[in-house]
Amino acid sequence: MDDIARVRRFNRTVTERIGALDDGYLARGRPLGQSRLLWEIGATNGGGAELRALRERLELDSGYLSRQLRALEGDGLVHVVPAPDDSRVRVARLTPEGVEEHAELDRSSDALVGGILDPLTERQRERLLSAMDEVERLMTASAVEVRAVDPADAAARASVAAYFTELASRFDLGFDPAHTRPTPDDEFREPHGTFLVAFLHGEPVGCVGLKLHGADPAEIKRLWVAASTRGMGLGARLLREIEAAAVRLGAAVVRLDTNRTLTEAIAMYRSHGYDEIPDFNGEPYADFWFEKRLA
Amino acid sequence: MDDIARVRRFNRTVTERIGALDDGYLARGRPLGQSRLLWEIGATNGGGAELRALRERLELDSGYLSRQLRALEGDGLVHVVPAPDDSRVRVARLTPEGVEEHAELDRSSDALVGGILDPLTERQRERLLSAMDEVERLMTASAVEVRAVDPADAAARASVAAYFTELASRFDLGFDPAHTRPTPDDEFREPHGTFLVAFLHGEPVGCVGLKLHGADPAEIKRLWVAASTRGMGLGARLLREIEAAAVRLGAAVVRLDTNRTLTEAIAMYRSHGYDEIPDFNGEPYADFWFEKRLA
DNA sequence: CCATATCTCTGACTCTAGTCAGAGAATGCT
DNA sequence: AGCATTCTCTGACTAGAGTCAGAGATATGG
């Protein structure tokens, strides 16, 4: 059976079995939209959910949301009050009955999941759960989109900031960006270089920069993968894409430096054809230097 | 993370990624219901689809179906003609434009599946597909429902017929039900015994019978699993459930006979605590006899 | 041949989801 | 203080999905 048929078959079985779950049972005699909303309000811990945040998250029309809330208020499950600091903004909060109803949704969703797991033996269940984890991880990985972004762009800035924070927590001696060799934005812009950011659901979850040095080898810098998306091969993907960009921009060889505490990265460089070379840039925080000749 | 959270997480990722597929793109500017219908008509090979069959399969109201078909007819994608043999029945058939549109749906669905697979490396893709197969198999397994059924019931008859057909094709010397020791329905009815059938989507996909012999060991017979549902542990499940039924009906020991060509069954009996014993019933088609003491 | 059942179609509904254009209140900016 | 902006709400819609009660045509069993 070919790949596409396998995916379709998976699709059919899964939606039939799990789709029924969401639609039928979570509704509990109430329109699905209202249940979803109730769920989402209940998921925001503590002080209630701002309407504008709900609208954003569920992508609802403001009029539509308003009406849905009124229906839930009518059922006594929710009450909507002005936000304390800004009384244009309103906040939805579950009433005690709403909390109870939310818990009930929770329970019936649990029961439905149980309906899938219960008929299986312990071993089958364990295999199903691992396979689900694998599908979930790989489908998430395939939802990641990598694209070139201006280094001054908010997503690029956020990625680099996260990268520096990560270094500070991992390096034995901490990390201070001021002590590293600085890279002006322009060096990560074409034609001097490029900067790639990986997005998942619009959030940056990884980055990598490339800096050309004329006829000398180009330099790969700022390779970062968010903790939440590790183990999905995203590092390797960023490396592949930045190598492709390097080729496109005319580099025949790429180099990079790294710290001895970044063991996964070091292993990855080695397994992707990078050879260790002597210090080529005097970077104070580096312990290893690598080089790869591109096809 | 507990099991239920794992399933929910899986659920969220999968429906987001694959649900978008069905809804958004398969619609192609046409209401989803009509696309589904078009798809289903196209899926029936050759002579078109009888409306009553469509109604059954898609669980549609007859008025609703009628209107949907009219809309598709209006778009020139389908034409509906009376069935040649019974002109109360009508048959929907794709027009050449309908065939083209169906192929287009097919292609765009392929493209969306491609969108999931393409960003992955060859190895990741292979892992995703195997994990999908595993999820699909185990979720199908968990959708199987086993219940006691009267041996004269259509589902029981169909199961036993399928079982005999299977035996005929596997035994070296064929199989003729007339030559085996017959079992009147009543012996598979409580209090003399019981008969379990496994259903998947309402279709019988397995069965097993139990025949009590007073203080002597009870006998397990007619253990069958449809070819389409092998490798899901359904045989073991039927065995477990019939053993439980035996205990409930007061049997302390169960016995069974089997033919040497049924190697998977023999392996299963051994691994489920059955010990080989001498011929206890003189069944002409049997080569092995097993016994198990129940807890 | 007649009564009954089967199958499809039409008309008349209901519900849910969702969109769009403002109105009105509160806030922020200058 | 005055004006633009932000946020929520109301009214007035549209469209899809689905239900229900027959009507009309055709088959079938006695």
TrEMBL record, chains A, B:
Keywords: Acyltransferase, Transferase
PROSITE patterns associated with the record: GNAT, HTH_MARR_2
Family annotation (SUPFAM superfamilies): Acyl-CoA N-acyltransferases (Nat), Winged helix' DNA-binding domain
Start and end residues of each HTH marR-type domain: 1-137
Keyword Ion transport: no
InterPro entries: Acyl_CoA_acyltransferase, Bact_Acetyltransf, GNAT_dom, HTH_MarR-typ, WH-like_DNA-bd_sf, WH_DNA-bd_sf
Gene3D superfamilies (UniProt xref): 3.40.630.30, Winged helix-like DNA-binding domain superfamily/Winged helix DNA-binding domain
UniProt xrefs under SMART domains: HTH_MARR
Pfam families: Acetyltransf_1, MarR
Occurrences of domain N-acetyltransferase (ranges): 144-295
Listed PANTHER family: AMINOALKYLPHOSPHONATE N-ACETYLTRANSFERASE-RELATED (PTHR43877:SF2), AMINOALKYLPHOSPHONATE N-ACETYLTRANSFERASE-RELATED-RELATED (PTHR43877)
Name of the featured protein: GNAT family N-acetyltransferase
